[in-house]
Amino acid sequence: MVTYLDAATAPLRNTGQIRLYGEEGFAGMRKACDLTARCLDELMSIVAPGVTTETIDRFVFEFGMDHGALPATLNYRGYTKSSCTSINHVVCHGIPDSKPLKDGDIVNIDVTYILDGWHGDSSRMYPVGTIKRAAERLLEVTHECLMRGIAAIRPGARTGAIGAAIQSYAEAERCSVVRDFCGHGVGQLFHDAPNILHYGSASEGVEMRPGMIFTVEPMINLGRPHVKVLSDGWTAVTRDRSLSAQYEHTIGVTETGCEIFTLSPKNLDRPGLPA
Protein backbone atom coordinates (compact mmCIF):
# COMPACT_ATOMS: atom_id res chain seq x y z
CA MET A 1 0.00 0.00 0.00
CA VAL A 2 1.51 3.32 -1.09
CA THR A 3 1.32 6.10 1.49
CA TYR A 4 1.98 9.81 1.10
CA LEU A 5 3.06 12.17 3.85
CA ASP A 6 3.78 15.82 4.44
CA ALA A 7 7.51 16.30 3.83
CA ALA A 8 7.66 18.96 6.56
CA THR A 9 6.93 16.34 9.22
CA ALA A 10 8.70 13.36 7.67
CA PRO A 11 11.90 11.84 9.12
CA LEU A 12 15.09 12.43 7.14
CA ARG A 13 15.40 8.87 5.90
CA ASN A 14 13.88 6.80 3.12
CA THR A 15 10.86 5.11 4.69
CA GLY A 16 9.30 4.04 1.40
CA GLN A 17 6.59 6.66 1.85
CA ILE A 18 6.22 9.40 -0.75
CA ARG A 19 6.89 12.93 0.47
CA LEU A 20 4.71 15.81 -0.64
CA TYR A 21 6.56 19.12 -0.48
CA GLY A 22 5.02 22.54 -0.05
CA GLU A 23 6.12 25.90 -1.43
CA GLU A 24 9.10 26.05 0.94
CA GLY A 25 10.40 22.79 -0.47
CA PHE A 26 9.85 23.90 -4.04
CA ALA A 27 11.70 27.16 -3.30
CA GLY A 28 14.66 25.27 -1.82
CA MET A 29 14.77 22.92 -4.79
CA ARG A 30 14.70 25.80 -7.26
CA LYS A 31 17.87 27.23 -5.71
CA ALA A 32 19.76 23.92 -5.51
CA CYS A 33 18.72 22.87 -9.01
CA ASP A 34 19.55 26.26 -10.49
CA LEU A 35 23.09 25.94 -9.15
CA THR A 36 23.43 22.47 -10.70
CA ALA A 37 22.12 23.74 -14.03
CA ARG A 38 24.55 26.67 -13.99
CA CYS A 39 27.45 24.29 -13.35
CA LEU A 40 26.40 22.15 -16.31
CA ASP A 41 26.21 25.31 -18.43
CA GLU A 42 29.77 26.26 -17.48
CA LEU A 43 31.05 22.82 -18.47
CA MET A 44 30.23 23.63 -22.10
CA SER A 45 33.46 25.63 -22.28
CA ILE A 46 35.53 22.93 -20.55
CA VAL A 47 34.57 19.69 -22.33
CA ALA A 48 36.97 19.25 -25.27
CA PRO A 49 39.41 16.73 -26.75
CA GLY A 50 42.43 16.31 -24.46
CA VAL A 51 40.61 17.36 -21.27
CA THR A 52 40.53 14.71 -18.55
CA THR A 53 37.40 13.82 -16.64
CA GLU A 54 39.41 14.52 -13.47
CA THR A 55 39.67 18.13 -14.65
CA ILE A 56 35.90 18.22 -15.11
CA ASP A 57 35.38 16.72 -11.66
CA ARG A 58 37.71 19.26 -10.07
CA PHE A 59 35.71 22.07 -11.66
CA VAL A 60 32.45 20.60 -10.32
CA PHE A 61 33.90 20.47 -6.80
CA GLU A 62 35.31 23.99 -6.92
CA PHE A 63 32.17 25.48 -8.46
CA GLY A 64 30.13 23.99 -5.64
CA MET A 65 32.51 25.22 -2.96
CA ASP A 66 32.48 28.71 -4.48
CA HIS A 67 28.70 28.78 -4.14
CA GLY A 68 28.32 27.22 -0.71
CA ALA A 69 27.24 23.80 -1.97
CA LEU A 70 28.55 20.28 -1.45
CA PRO A 71 28.61 17.65 -4.23
CA ALA A 72 26.23 14.92 -3.06
CA THR A 73 28.25 12.08 -4.61
CA LEU A 74 31.46 12.97 -2.74
CA ASN A 75 31.99 10.13 -0.22
CA TYR A 76 28.48 8.80 -0.91
CA ARG A 77 28.61 5.06 -0.12
CA GLY A 78 32.37 5.14 -0.68
CA TYR A 79 32.29 7.06 -3.98
CA THR A 80 35.23 9.47 -3.97
CA LYS A 81 34.38 11.94 -6.76
CA SER A 82 32.18 15.03 -7.09
CA SER A 83 30.49 13.94 -10.32
CA CYS A 84 29.92 10.97 -12.60
CA THR A 85 31.41 11.08 -16.11
CA SER A 86 30.13 8.34 -18.41
CA ILE A 87 31.83 8.07 -21.82
CA ASN A 88 30.54 6.32 -24.97
CA HIS A 89 29.38 2.81 -23.92
CA VAL A 90 29.37 3.68 -20.21
CA VAL A 91 25.71 3.81 -19.21
CA CYS A 92 26.09 5.61 -15.87
CA HIS A 93 28.28 6.10 -12.78
CA GLY A 94 31.52 6.47 -14.73
CA ILE A 95 34.32 7.50 -12.35
CA PRO A 96 36.41 10.57 -13.33
CA ASP A 97 40.08 9.75 -13.98
CA SER A 98 43.21 10.93 -15.76
CA LYS A 99 42.31 9.57 -19.19
CA PRO A 100 41.77 12.43 -21.68
CA LEU A 101 38.61 12.76 -23.74
CA LYS A 102 39.02 12.08 -27.47
CA ASP A 103 37.53 13.73 -30.51
CA GLY A 104 34.28 11.92 -31.32
CA ASP A 105 33.51 10.84 -27.74
CA ILE A 106 30.18 11.51 -26.10
CA VAL A 107 30.14 12.01 -22.33
CA ASN A 108 27.37 12.28 -19.77
CA ILE A 109 28.18 14.51 -16.80
CA ASP A 110 25.96 13.96 -13.78
CA VAL A 111 26.03 16.56 -11.00
CA THR A 112 24.09 16.80 -7.74
CA TYR A 113 24.64 19.71 -5.36
CA ILE A 114 23.41 19.93 -1.79
CA LEU A 115 22.51 23.56 -1.09
CA ASP A 116 20.93 24.46 2.26
CA GLY A 117 19.90 20.82 2.65
CA TRP A 118 18.27 20.47 -0.78
CA HIS A 119 19.53 18.22 -3.57
CA GLY A 120 19.69 19.51 -7.16
CA ASP A 121 20.23 16.52 -9.47
CA SER A 122 20.75 16.75 -13.24
CA SER A 123 22.87 15.42 -16.10
CA ARG A 124 23.52 16.24 -19.73
CA MET A 125 25.31 14.71 -22.69
CA TYR A 126 28.26 16.59 -24.20
CA PRO A 127 29.74 15.87 -27.64
CA VAL A 128 33.54 15.99 -27.65
CA GLY A 129 34.80 17.67 -30.80
CA THR A 130 33.10 16.31 -33.92
CA ILE A 131 30.92 13.25 -33.31
CA LYS A 132 29.48 10.76 -35.78
CA ARG A 133 25.91 11.09 -36.97
CA ALA A 134 24.90 7.88 -35.16
CA ALA A 135 26.06 9.37 -31.87
CA GLU A 136 24.34 12.67 -32.59
CA ARG A 137 21.11 10.86 -33.38
CA LEU A 138 21.33 8.93 -30.10
CA LEU A 139 21.66 12.20 -28.21
CA GLU A 140 18.65 13.65 -30.03
CA VAL A 141 16.53 10.56 -29.36
CA THR A 142 17.54 10.41 -25.68
CA HIS A 143 16.73 14.06 -25.02
CA GLU A 144 13.38 13.65 -26.76
CA CYS A 145 12.71 10.61 -24.55
CA LEU A 146 13.37 12.75 -21.48
CA MET A 147 11.02 15.51 -22.62
CA ARG A 148 8.26 13.08 -23.63
CA GLY A 149 8.50 11.44 -20.24
CA ILE A 150 8.24 14.82 -18.52
CA ALA A 151 5.25 15.76 -20.69
CA ALA A 152 3.38 12.78 -19.17
CA ILE A 153 3.68 14.16 -15.62
CA ARG A 154 0.43 15.49 -14.16
CA PRO A 155 -1.64 14.94 -11.01
CA GLY A 156 -3.80 11.84 -11.17
CA ALA A 157 -1.65 10.05 -13.74
CA ARG A 158 0.55 7.15 -12.71
CA THR A 159 4.33 7.16 -12.84
CA GLY A 160 4.11 4.36 -15.40
CA ALA A 161 2.94 6.99 -17.91
CA ILE A 162 6.45 8.46 -17.81
CA GLY A 163 8.07 5.15 -18.68
CA ALA A 164 5.48 4.32 -21.32
CA ALA A 165 6.13 7.61 -23.13
CA ILE A 166 9.88 7.04 -23.03
CA GLN A 167 9.81 3.40 -24.09
CA SER A 168 7.37 3.87 -26.97
CA TYR A 169 9.46 6.64 -28.52
CA ALA A 170 12.87 5.01 -27.95
CA GLU A 171 11.82 1.70 -29.46
CA ALA A 172 10.11 3.39 -32.41
CA GLU A 173 13.52 4.97 -33.09
CA ARG A 174 15.19 1.52 -32.96
CA CYS A 175 16.90 2.20 -29.66
CA SER A 176 16.53 0.41 -26.31
CA VAL A 177 15.76 1.53 -22.76
CA VAL A 178 18.04 0.43 -19.91
CA ARG A 179 16.03 -1.39 -17.22
CA ASP A 180 18.70 -1.68 -14.53
CA PHE A 181 18.55 1.94 -13.34
CA CYS A 182 15.72 4.37 -12.76
CA GLY A 183 14.76 7.84 -11.62
CA HIS A 184 14.00 8.46 -7.95
CA GLY A 185 12.45 10.73 -5.41
CA VAL A 186 14.71 13.60 -4.38
CA GLY A 187 14.55 16.66 -2.16
CA GLN A 188 16.01 16.68 1.33
CA LEU A 189 17.25 13.16 0.59
CA PHE A 190 19.50 12.23 -2.35
CA HIS A 191 17.52 9.06 -3.15
CA ASP A 192 13.96 8.65 -1.95
CA ALA A 193 10.66 7.05 -2.94
CA PRO A 194 9.25 6.59 -5.51
CA ASN A 195 11.32 4.86 -8.17
CA ILE A 196 10.62 6.23 -11.65
CA LEU A 197 10.92 3.50 -14.29
CA HIS A 198 11.73 4.53 -17.86
CA TYR A 199 9.65 1.75 -19.42
CA GLY A 200 6.30 0.11 -18.76
CA SER A 201 2.59 0.84 -18.96
CA ALA A 202 0.66 4.04 -18.23
CA SER A 203 -1.58 2.06 -15.87
CA GLU A 204 1.34 1.01 -13.65
CA GLY A 205 3.22 2.80 -10.88
CA VAL A 206 2.02 5.13 -8.16
CA GLU A 207 -0.38 8.01 -8.57
CA MET A 208 1.35 11.34 -9.07
CA ARG A 209 0.21 14.04 -6.65
CA PRO A 210 1.07 17.73 -6.29
CA GLY A 211 4.17 18.19 -4.13
CA MET A 212 6.01 15.08 -5.33
CA ILE A 213 9.62 15.73 -6.44
CA PHE A 214 11.61 13.19 -8.43
CA THR A 215 14.11 12.76 -11.25
CA VAL A 216 13.46 11.55 -14.77
CA GLU A 217 16.73 10.24 -16.25
CA PRO A 218 16.32 7.77 -19.12
CA MET A 219 19.36 5.81 -20.27
CA ILE A 220 19.00 4.91 -23.96
CA ASN A 221 21.25 2.52 -25.91
CA LEU A 222 21.89 2.26 -29.64
CA GLY A 223 22.12 -1.49 -29.19
CA ARG A 224 20.52 -3.87 -26.72
CA PRO A 225 19.40 -2.75 -23.24
CA HIS A 226 21.59 -5.12 -21.22
CA VAL A 227 24.30 -3.70 -18.95
CA LYS A 228 26.95 -4.95 -16.56
CA VAL A 229 28.70 -3.28 -13.64
CA LEU A 230 32.50 -3.37 -13.70
CA SER A 231 34.72 -4.58 -10.87
CA ASP A 232 34.98 -1.08 -9.38
CA GLY A 233 31.39 -1.56 -8.21
CA TRP A 234 30.14 1.62 -9.88
CA THR A 235 30.76 1.83 -13.63
CA ALA A 236 27.87 0.38 -15.66
CA VAL A 237 28.52 -0.38 -19.34
CA THR A 238 26.51 -1.80 -22.23
CA ARG A 239 27.16 -5.52 -22.62
CA ASP A 240 27.35 -5.19 -26.41
CA ARG A 241 29.55 -2.06 -26.14
CA SER A 242 26.99 0.00 -28.04
CA LEU A 243 26.77 3.72 -27.34
CA SER A 244 24.60 4.86 -24.45
CA ALA A 245 23.23 8.29 -23.58
CA GLN A 246 21.34 9.89 -20.69
CA TYR A 247 19.76 13.22 -19.82
CA GLU A 248 18.27 14.01 -16.43
CA HIS A 249 15.99 16.66 -14.93
CA THR A 250 14.58 17.10 -11.44
CA ILE A 251 10.82 17.64 -11.54
CA GLY A 252 8.16 18.89 -9.13
CA VAL A 253 4.53 17.87 -9.64
CA THR A 254 2.19 20.89 -9.52
CA GLU A 255 -1.59 21.29 -9.39
CA THR A 256 -1.74 21.57 -13.18
CA GLY A 257 1.28 19.61 -14.44
CA CYS A 258 4.90 19.90 -13.43
CA GLU A 259 7.84 22.25 -12.96
CA ILE A 260 11.31 21.43 -14.31
CA PHE A 261 13.74 22.66 -11.68
CA THR A 262 16.98 21.98 -13.58
CA LEU A 263 16.40 23.80 -16.88
CA SER A 264 19.49 25.56 -18.23
CA PRO A 265 19.49 29.33 -17.59
CA LYS A 266 21.35 29.70 -20.90
CA ASN A 267 19.14 27.31 -22.93
CA LEU A 268 21.97 24.77 -23.09
CA ASP A 269 19.98 21.69 -22.10
CA ARG A 270 21.21 19.94 -25.31
CA PRO A 271 24.91 20.90 -25.50
CA GLY A 272 26.25 20.78 -29.03
CA LEU A 273 22.87 19.97 -30.62
CA PRO A 274 20.59 22.33 -32.56
CA ALA A 275 18.25 24.27 -30.27
From TrEMBL:
Keywords: Aminopeptidase, Hydrolase, Metal-binding, Protease. A divalent metal cation 1 binds at residues 110, 121, 248. GO terms for molecular function: initiator methionyl aminopeptidase activity; metal ion binding; metalloaminopeptidase activity. Binds 2 divalent metal cations per subunit. Has a high-affinity and a low affinity metal-binding site. The true nature of the physiological cofactor is under debate. The enzyme is active with cobalt, zinc, manganese or divalent iron ions. Most likely, methionine aminopeptidases function as mononuclear Fe(2+)-metalloproteases under physiological conditions, and the catalytically relevant metal-binding site has been assigned to the histidine-containing high-affinity site. It is an enzyme of class 3 (hydrolase). One of its GO terms (biological process) is proteolysis. Its cofactor is Co(2+); Zn(2+); Mn(2+); Fe(2+). Residues 28-255 form the Peptidase M24 domain. Its EC number is 3.4.11.18. It holds the Pfam family Peptidase_M24. Substrate binds at residues 93, 191. It catalyses: Release of N-terminal amino acids, preferentially methionine, from peptides and arylamides. Removes the N-terminal methionine from nascent proteins. The N-terminal methionine is often cleaved when the second residue in the primary sequence is small and uncharged (Met-Ala-, Cys, Gly, Pro, Ser, Thr, or Val). Requires deformylation of the N(alpha)-formylated initiator methionine before it can be hydrolyzed. Belongs to the peptidase M24A family. Methionine aminopeptidase type 1 subfamily. Monomer. PANTHER family: METHIONINE AMINOPEPTIDASE, METHIONINE AMINOPEPTIDASE 1D, MITOCHONDRIAL. This is Methionine aminopeptidase. The lineage of its organism: Bacteria, Pseudomonadati, Pseudomonadota, Alphaproteobacteria, Hyphomicrobiales.
